[in-house]
Amino acid sequence: MKILGIESSCDETAAAVVEGGRTVLSNVVASSVEEQALYGGVVPEIASRRHIESISQVVQKALADAHLTMDGVDAVAVTYAPGLIGAVLVGVNFAKGLSFAANKPLVPVHHLRGHVASLYLTHPELRPPFLCLVASGGHCHFVRVDGYTTFTVLGRTVDDAAGEAFDKVARTLGLGYPGGPAVSKAAETGDPTAYRLPTPHVEGRYNVSFSGLKTAVLNVANTAEMKGEALDVPSLAAAFQHKVAEILAEKLALAAADTGAKTVCLAGGVAANTLLRQKVQQKVDTLGARLALPKLIYCGDNAAMIAAQGYYELQAGHTAGAGLNGYASLPMEQGYPPPTP
Ligand code: KG4
Ligand code: ZN
């Protein structure tokens, strides 16, 4: 069964065709990140406008790369939540039109469920249950994946998402956007022990907090400026990255130990972070569990992961009618349709 996936929840306009939830036949991503970088972050209206300009071409290329027309596609899966609402609606509306015109089922996919499904693209043998940290620019969830369409969120950030913290710290240090890769690059030549950053205290056994850490970095930068001292940017970036990776790896290991998880996974943009991967690997080895990581191309936003999750949503009978709407925020445990507020 071949699913066409469409993703437009942030600054990537993406379309892909995936067979059987596992085999990627095409994967096309057009990003407005370079333009967004000029503003130091995603400007929602610019994201929406770039989506509406490029979505037709992106979808056509995904079909062409897979050597298919809509006749050969079994369903259209689309990210309907969460995300920048103007951006989400571009993909939802396009998918609706396409499914109507081609008379194919329309499958709504939660973006974070999509990030989890990125693991199926990399590990064809991976089956739930497993434990997954989904860490992106907007979310940071410790999730027990009970089944393909059933999830239990054990813990989350109580303030900033991990990716958001990287982005804000990068801005403070003048490293540009997106912050994750920029901070990692700067940290390569830094000494992570040169600055001591606090470990935030947070309520909830599997919750994390990054707001205080971000403020601590800002305070170090401001103090250096006030005193007229040179700031060691690579070392501050390295200290911050170490702290974030340590916090995430420790909480993930705690959740894995408590739940007896045999397989532990990372997903989302932050899962591309090399240090986080290393730290989690060490912890998971100590627990005697197995670590499964997504390929780097499937960490950031893409539509192959939406098509993969769409396959499992379709198997579970989760389709939408012409009344499908988009949602800026929605718990990932919530199936479609969400209750009316
Ligand atoms: O999943 P994603 O592409 O989009 C959202 O759903 O938000 O994640 C983007 C986030 C950004 O905050 C970016 O700075 C972060 O992932 N990121 C990283 C790395 N690459 C991207 N964070 C840490 N290290 C990286 N190598
Ligand atoms: Zn994402």
Describe the protein's architecture and organization.
The protein starts with a strand and ends in a 26-residue tail after the last helix. Helix content is 43%, strand content 19%. The strands form two sheets. Strands 3-2-1-4-5 form a five-stranded mixed β-sheet, sandwiched between helices. It has a five-stranded mixed β-sheet with strand order 8-7-6-9-10, sandwiched between helices. The protein has helices at 33-37, 44-65, 85-102, 111-122, 162-172, 179-187, 211-227, 233-259, 274-287, 304-315; strands at residues 2-7, 12-19, 23-31, 75-81, 106-110, 130-135, 140-147, 150-156, 263-267, 290-292. By secondary structure, it is α/β, with parallel strands linked by helices. It is globular and about 65 Å long. Strand 2 (12-19) and strand 3 (23-31) form a beta hairpin. Helix 5 (162-172) packs across helix 6, helix 5 packs parallel to helix 7 and helix 6 (179-187) crosses helix 8. The mean pLDDT is 97. 5'-O-[(R)-(carboxyoxy)(hydroxy)phosphoryl]adenosine binds at residues 10, 136-138, 163-164, 166-167, 178-181, 184, 268-270, 272-273, 300-301.
Task: Please summarize what this structure is.
With 341 residues, the chain is an alpha/beta fold. The chain is built from ten helices and ten strands.
Which descriptors would you attach to this protein?
341 residues; alpha/beta; five-stranded mixed beta sheet; 10 strands; 43% helix; globular; binds 5'-O-[(R)-(carboxyoxy)(hydroxy)phosphoryl]adenosine; binds zinc ion
Number of helices: 10
Give the SSE string.
EEEHHEHEHEEEHHHHEHEH
**How many beta strands in the DSSP annotation?**
10
List low-pLDDT spans.
Answer: none
User: Which ions and ligands are bound to the chains?
Assistant: 5'-O-[(R)-(carboxyoxy)(hydroxy)phosphoryl]adenosine, zinc ion
